[in-house]
Amino acid sequence: MSFEGKETMLRVVRQEAELFFGMVGADGVWEAPTGAGHWEVRDVVAHLTDTTESYFVAFDAARSDAEVPPAYGLPGMAERVDRQALALREVPQAELIDRLRTDFDKMMGMFDALGPDDWAGFTVPHFYMGPLPVFFYPAFQLMDYGVHSWDIRQGTGRAHGLSGEAADLLVPFMFVLWKYTTGAKDPCELGIRITSGPNAGDTRVSVGPDGMDYAAGDVSDLRAVIEFDPGSFVLTAFGRSNAGTIRGDRAVADRYLNLFFRI
C-alpha cells in the first residue's frame, strides 16, 4: 500500500493481465464456463471492460472536483456487475478484447504517472465503495486480472492455482474486503494466520454490531485461529473456495466464515 510498492504492484498487474489476455484470446474459449458462477469467458472480459471504464469516470471526477452520487454500496454489487457484464455479451470476441486491451493500457499509463504524493494522497470515488486512496485502484486491477484468470482456469476443469506474487500482494487487501462485506454482525473474535510470504503473520479480528476491526497481534489467547497460505486466503475471501486450517473452536471459526456476503 506504500509508494515503495508501486513498481512491484504494477509489474505483477501487467504480468497477470498478459496471462489473462493470452487465455481469453484463444480459439474456442469465448463461451466456455468459468469459476465465476454462470459467467462465461466473454462475460468476464465484459466485466473487466465495464469496471475499467468506470475507473476513468471516477478519475475524471476526482481531478475536476465534480460531485458524484453517493456510493452504490457493496451489497448490491454482485447483481449490478452481472447486469453490466451481460449487457456486453453479444460484442464479438476480437472487438471486446481489443476494447479491454485499450482500456488496460490507458489505465496502466495513468498508474505509471502517479507520484509519491498521489499514491496515498489522491482520493478517487469508487462507484461501490466511495472515496478511496488511489493505491486501491492498481490493487483492484490485480484482483480483477489475478482472480478472474483463476476463474477462467477453473472453468477448464484442470488442476491449477493462484500465482504467488499476486496472492502475496493481495493479502492485506483481503482484510479490507472482509471489512466491507461483513453481513450479520454477530459478535465474533478469532485470529487469522497467514503462514507464508512477505505478509505472513497473525491478525486479531473482531466482528460486532459496528462491523469488523482487525489488527496485527498475538492470537494465542483466542478461542479459534484459522491458518491460510496466501492463495487460499485470497480465494476464500473472494468466495471461490472453502479453505483454511482451523485451530481451536470450530464453532467460532464456522460462525466467522459465514458472516460475509459475496461480491
UniProtKB/TrEMBL annotation:
<dbReference type="InterPro" id="IPR034660">
    <property type="entry name" value="DinB/YfiT-like"/>
</dbReference>
<keyword id="KW-0413">Isomerase</keyword>
<dbReference type="Pfam" id="PF11716">
    <property type="entry name" value="MDMPI_N"/>
</dbReference>
<dbReference type="GO" id="GO:0016853">
    <property type="term" value="F:isomerase activity"/>
</dbReference>
<protein>
    <submittedName>
        <fullName>Maleylpyruvate isomerase family mycothiol-dependent enzyme</fullName>
    </submittedName>
</protein>
<dbReference type="InterPro" id="IPR024344">
    <property type="entry name" value="MDMPI_metal-binding"/>
</dbReference>
<dbReference type="InterPro" id="IPR017517">
    <property type="entry name" value="Maleyloyr_isom"/>
</dbReference>
<feature type="domain" description="Mycothiol-dependent maleylpyruvate isomerase metal-binding">
    <location>
        <begin position="27"/>
        <end position="153"/>
    </location>
</feature>
